[in-house]
Predict the 3D structure of the following.
Amino acid sequence: MIPSTPAAPVAAGVPLALAQRARIEAALAARHAGAGRDRLSDLVFSNLYLFRAAHEYRLVEGDWPLISGRTYDGTRHAIPLFDVGQASLVQLTQLLSQYDCLYPLSRQQVAQFDSAAFEAVAARDDADYLYPADHFRFYRGAKLLKKRNLMKQFLSSHVVRSTPLDAAGLDDARRVLALWMADKGKASGEADEQPCLEALAHLDEFGLQGFVHYADDEPAGFVLAQEIGSGVFVMRFAKGLARYKGIAQYMFHHFVTASKQPVQWLNFEQDMGLANFRRTKLSYQPAALIDKYRVRLRARGCHAGPDPASIGLRNMDCGSGPAMTADSQFSQDPPQGPA
């Protein structure tokens, strides 16, 4: 029988810890099996752990286990670690009496809710940017010509070499991060410095992979990416020093061409509504924006949401409109501005 106990209070549970990794990762993987290229970038244990302080993430065990937290706009939310399709209307209502919404949920999860009782709202600021790897592999076409030219400029101006980011390259990556912070005028602990340092410390444990790039034998940049589905990689961190114009375009190109595993899609995560990030991410011509839904009780005064039967990916018409850009590489460091 499905349990009917109310959800725990928002302050319940325990802070996220490394010891919970296997249990949480297994639950998240089960909830998003078969999502393919559309898997939400947020829902991986390592990403939640690295940004646990910013979002106050806590693991709440029980009949309906979840991770509680706060979005950047202050919304108290719950990430279900259970199959929402197995919970009754009463049980979901009890759960949402304790939280402002369930978030982030995929299109497939939202379709399991009764639209008469719940509404699903997807904010444009939350959507993941999805690109074919060939965009970066070739920078073909007029819309990516500037990217291609910037990469060529970088390669023609410097002697460039790249090495896989492993234990031998950690000090150089940390050096790049410190210089990047100085470039941005950030004090220690600001931006995404601490999550990035922790990611470097847990490369293998978190399944992160990337490269350190050198220009004239000086560390110039690095990337860290994570495979979340077959051929689908999230670009978690990308740090390129401002003095090396075109390094961002080169680093993305190099990753999709030099990765040990075939890369078919790159996910650049969300832009959080910040105009410069939106410009930058759109300038790389995404194939789609992957919506992340907030599910709320209709009785709580929210405006009407979309019909679950009609929601889904917003496929981008890359031939229309101006090119316009977080827990990620672009949340704090867009690559070389709107290039």
